[in-house]
Design a protein that fits this description.
The complex is a heterodimer. By secondary structure, chain A is mainly beta. Chain A contains no helices and eleven strands. The chains are: A mainly beta, B mainly beta. At the A-B interface, strand 4, strand 5, strand 9 and strand 10 of A face strand 5, strand 6 and strand 11 of B.
Chain lengths: 112, 113
C-alpha cells in the first residue's frame, strides 16, 4: 500500500521561481490537506479539499494555490517563491467520519 | 485566536513513569474530533489516538489514553509507562467546521533513563 505519496521529497528554489508539489493518495479518500511545518509553529493548514473539484483556504493560504482535478491528487503551487516559504510541507488525507488522517512523508523546500 | 493550544513546549519524563501532555481547544461546532500525533526525529507523522465529541468514554490505545474533559475543552494525552522510544514531538489536532483539520504547536517529550 502506497498510502499518501508526496513528490518531490526535497527541492531548492530560487526566489521568484515557481513549482508544484504533488500529493497522491490511493485510499479513495474524500478530504485532502496541505500543511507547512516551521520550528515552533506546529503544522499550519494552507489549503484543503473536501472532494474532487473543491478547494478551501486554511490558516495560511497567501502565496499558494491548489487544485484537485482528480480525487486522488492534490496539487500545491507556488507561483513566485519567497524565502518565507522555506519549510517542510506535509500532505494528509482522510475519509469523512474517519478517526485517522494519513500523512505523506513530507517535502523539504528551501527558497534561496 | 488559537483554536488548539499546547502550552508545554517541552516535557521531561523518566522511563517507566507516566506523563500527561496538555491540549485545550476552542470551537463552537457541536460535532468535532480530537487527534494526537507523534512525530519522531525521522519526521513522519504517526497517528496515536482519536476522540469524538460525542464519545462518552475516554479513548484508549495501548499505553495511550486521552483524558477528554468536554466542559473544560481539554483533551490531554496520557502516556503510561514511558519508553525511550516515546521521545518525540507530539501534536494535538482538531477536526471541526467544514472538516478543517488544524494542529497545535506541539510538545517535545524527552524520556530519560
Amino acid at each position: 500500500n502506497a498510502g499518501v505519496t508526496q513528490t518531490p521529497k526535497f527541492r531548492v528554489l530560487k526566489t521568484g521561481q515557481s513549482m508544484t508539489l504533488l500529493c497522491a493518495q490511493d485510499m479513495n479518500h474524500e478530504y485532502m490537506y496541505w500543511y507547512r511545518q516551521d520550528p515552533g509553529m506546529g503544522l499550519r493548514l494552507i489549503h484543503y479539499s473536501v472532494g474532487e473539484g473543491t478547494t478551501a483556504k486554511g490558516e495560511v493560504p497567501d502565496g499558494y494555490n491548489v487544485s484537485r482535478l482528480k480525487k486522488q491528487n492534490f496539487l500545491l503551487g507556488l507561483e513566485s517563491a519567497a524565502p518565507s516559504q522555506t519549510s517542510v510541507y506535509f500532505c494528509a488525507s482522510r475519509n469523512g467520519g474517519a478517526t485517522e488522517a494519513f500523512f505523506g512523508q513530507g517535502t523539504r523546500l528551501t527558497v534561496v | 485566536a488559537q483554536k488548539i493550544t499546547q502550552t508545554q513546549p517541552g516535557m521531561f519524563v523518566q522511563e517507566k513513569e507516566a506523563v500527561t501532555l496538555d491540549c485545550t481547544y476552542d470551537t463552537s461546532d457541536p460535532s468535532y474530533g480530537l487527534f494526537w500525533y507523534k512525530q519522531p526525529s525521522s519526521g513522519e507523522m504517526i497517528f496515536l489516538i482519536y476522540q469524538g465529541s460525542y464519545d462518552q468514554q475516554n479513548a484508549t490505545e495501548g499505553r495511550y489514553s486521552l483524558n477528554f474533559q468536554k466542559a473544560r475543552k481539554s483533551a490531554n494525552l496520557v502516556i503510561s509507562a514511558s519508553q525511550l522510544g516515546d521521545s518525540a514531538m507530539y501534536f494535538c489536532a482538531m477536526r471541526e467546521e467544514a472538516d478543517k483539520l488544524i494542529f497545535g504547536t506541539g510538545t517535545r517529550l524527552q524520556v530519560f533513563p
